[in-house]
Design brief:
By secondary structure, the chain is an alpha/beta fold. Helices cover about 35% and strands about 25% of the residues. The chain has eight helices and ten strands. The protein has a five-stranded mixed barrel, surrounded by six helices. A hairpin with a 2-residue loop joins strand 4 and strand 5. Helix 3 runs antiparallel to helix 7 and helix 3 crosses helix 8. It is globular, with a radius of gyration of 17 Å. It starts with a strand and ends in a 7-residue tail after the last strand.
Length: about 250
């Protein structure tokens, strides 16, 4: 069984993610672009101890910049949502590696989101959008699951000439996420057994990340497993989310 399975939509994303992953402990699977292809891939996922979805994403809020890493606190599709309780831990690991991390809702759509639609999603609390994560999040079941998107397409882009430069920035960041993903998978699957010193450091780091989560940006570093359980075993039950503005 693979310790960590990482799903990406595109070949360029797969190559970037593989760059930082330890050899032999992780498998990167290209699903193809869009929710239909992702759903087909989700139906035949190989066995793994932990599942992550990674790649590029589009910002729906103007305060997200190219190269920011969004770690999803929940994944939405239509009026449904699935929580991602491992988000604080993974965000802390990414921050520890010097990456600019944001946490918040990620929306999966079946089309490219532009213009006013981005604003509507932002009003409902979303930070970014993609086209693949939801079917894979559903397929994860009780498996430790994480979703992260490196922003390559910002909400305030006015000139098409800016997009290639943003893509280069996002690609470079995506190449650096591997160590944090591997560390998260080891912890989530129980393969990582921290020492007493590690636990003491975790308490300090969890406090730091907990404060930063109030503003949606992880500036600390730590090993926080989830908002409700130290071992990350928070039930991942699908729920509706309100249509009114969320904080």
């Amino acid at each position: 069984m693979t310790a960590l399975l990482v799903c990406t939509a595109l070949g360029i994303e797969a190559r970037a993610v593989r760059h930082g992953l330890p050899a032999g402990d992780a498998l990167v699977l290209r699903t193809g672009m869009g929710p239909e292809r992702a759903a087909r891939a989700a139906a035949r996922l190989p066995s793994a101890d932990a599942l992550a979805v990674a790649g590029f994403g589009g910002a729906v809020r103007e305060d997200l910049r190219a190269g920011d890493v969004l770690v999803a606190t929940e994944v939405r599709f239509g009026e449904r949502a699935l929580p991602c309780p491992w988000a604080p831990f993974l965000a802390a690991e990414l921050a520890r590696h010097g990456l600019p991390v944001r946490t918040g809702p990620l929306v999966t759509c079946d089309h490219v989101v532009t213009g006013a639609e981005r604003g509507l999603l932002a009003e409902r609390g979303a930070l970014a959008v993609d086209m693949e994560t939801w079917p894979l999040a559903e397929a994860a079941g009780d498996l430790p699951f994480a979703a992260l998107r490196v922003i390559a397409d910002t909400a305030d882009v006015r000139s098409p000439w800016a997009v290639p430069a943003y893509g280069v920035v996002a690609y470079r960041v995506l190449r650096r996420i591997g160590p944090a993903l591997a560390r998260w998978a080891a912890h989530a699957s129980g393969a990582d057994h921290p020492t007493d010193d590690d636990r003491a450091m975790d308490d300090d780091r969890a406090t730091s990340v907990g404060h930063s989560m109030d503003t949606g940006r992880a500036t600390g570093a730590g090993r926080r497993t989830g908002p409700e359980a130290d071992d990350g075993s928070v039930p991942r039950e699908e729920r509706p989310f309100p249509s009114s503005r969320e904080g």
